[in-house]
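My hope is that you will study the record closing this message with an eye to the fold:
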Amino acid sequence: MNRKNSILLGVLLGVCAIALCVVLVFFAMNSESSDSETETTTAADAEGTATDSTSDDGSAVSTDDTVYGDGEVTLAEYIGLEVGASEVVVSEDDVQENIDACLEDYATYDTYTEGVTVQEDDIVNIDYVGSVDEGEFDGGSYEGYDLQIGSGSFIDGFEDGLIGAEVGTTVTVTATFYDGYGTTTLTETGEEVDLSNREATFVVTINSLQRPTYPEYNDEFVTTYFSAYDLSTTEEFEDYIEEMLYYNLVLTAVWDEFVEACEVVSYDEDEVNDLLDQTVEYYVSYYAYYGYDFEELVSEYGYTLDEYAELYMLDSVKETVKEKMIIRAIAEAEGIEVTDEVYESEAELYRISYGYDTVEELEEAYTKSEIEFSILYDLVTEFVAQNATVYDDSAETETTTTTVTE
């Protein structure tokens, strides 16, 4: 699997190796910890332990025995990692799914504000106000939301209820929250209400509609959009997709267990703190986008922002730093490096992959060091996947099948 394959895999699978993108289900995470003032939760990994408890006055107490130093990791064996052949099977459907994803990526869109009705695949810009029997609820209203019909991103019944509606009109849609959805508060009274399995009514105004036109899949399409990857025919394109999916399955099967087997000797404190700060900044921006003050939300559960970060973000940050140390250690051991020449060619592929007009624009969106590490990550994981051992596990599969059948 050459480097062009690796970069293209990121495009096809929608993987962005540069950006740190994490999702926090804030209220679900904290509802359990707020049930009792005396509850103690322990989060531990192989290298350090963070303990979250509450003191007599309800404030958070934490201890962290992370070992800091130069930033050193002891590698487990990474040559010949084993994976069963049955785990790395790429089907025709898998290849077709990725072809379809590429066609979607290069679709063009026509915008309508009147005269058409909503259909599957349309992207509608909507305002909506949701309510249950007791009244409107917090989080149930929004203005200017872009929703792709058929994406399944809204609760059951919402998207289907918009199909056939005319753009520029206001319609009423009935939808049902899934089991275990959780609670919210009524907008007018502040009373808590459980939305699990509840039917809700949404008044939806369809402001505009974007309808995609997909390019025809042929050699011209491949040449137009993927010539930078040395691809010019649909046959070459499909072979590359199959190969990339195969190596991605290999890596998926072996990587996490390998990372877990590596042992951290010490963490670089600056690296940990920098990434922790970036993570906090992400959450603050993420919640601000939806009109919430993250620091205020955290304070409602008795934490300062720093306390919350240490208790609920530090472990995942340390795992990320551990993985970065592993990548750098393998690169050093195997002589893998991002030279100026490699950076120039790979940054150009990144530019194409993520839709920037120039490499300079790419470097404005992400720092050069982030891009360099992303390239190094791809090179190292590619090396590990190519040097994995794929063995015939048909006998194991047959034994398992027989046992289950019996």
Remarks:
- The CA atoms of residues 131 and 201 lie 5 Å apart.
- The two ends are 41 Å apart (CA to CA).
- DSSP finds 14 helices and 14 strands in the chain.
